What we know:
Elements: H1 4-18, H2 25-36, E1 64-66, E2 72-77, E3 82-87, E4 89-90, E5 93-94, E6 105-107, E7 112-118, E8 123-130, E9 134-135, E10 139-143, E11 151-157, E12 160-163
Parallel strand pairs: 7-12
Antiparallel strand pairs: 1-2, 2-3, 4-5, 6-9, 7-8, 8-10, 10-11, 11-12
Amino acid sequence: MPHRHFALPIFSLLLMGATSSFEDTTLLDRQVASHLNAGIGEAGGALAPIDDRLKLKRCPASVELSGTKRNAILLSCPGLGWRIFVPVSRNGRQDSGRDDRAGAILIQRNQPVTLIVRRSNFSIRYGVIAQKSGRMGEYIPVRSDRKSKELMARVSGSGEVELAR
């Protein structure tokens, strides 16, 4: 009979250990939908759910959601230093923010540009230097510094390139 008194505290400790130390991406999706007043796949909402394979350490404070600059909303945890961009749609389609002037040179040689890697559930932006001038749709070499490997990227807008697949 005296063993019953220890069962409840031990069970409670087991339950506490079962809680995840990572953010619940479903909960983050709900926060994004609430912030944007639109659900996933709706006009003005996130293009897709946040990838549940992301293992973001649980934020000690609440996750911060920042505006909708261009075509993504920023989720961040200042206390831990992580941040992710969630692609959003505008008027039922993704707003590319592209400059479609035919034939215009959008990127000059040695210009700092943003390299964008896009996938269905996320996008990554990285600062690089254009090694050649380029027009919309052209492939140009870029690199992050003099010693880094050159990558081929497609000009996707003024000051923006996308990684060639």
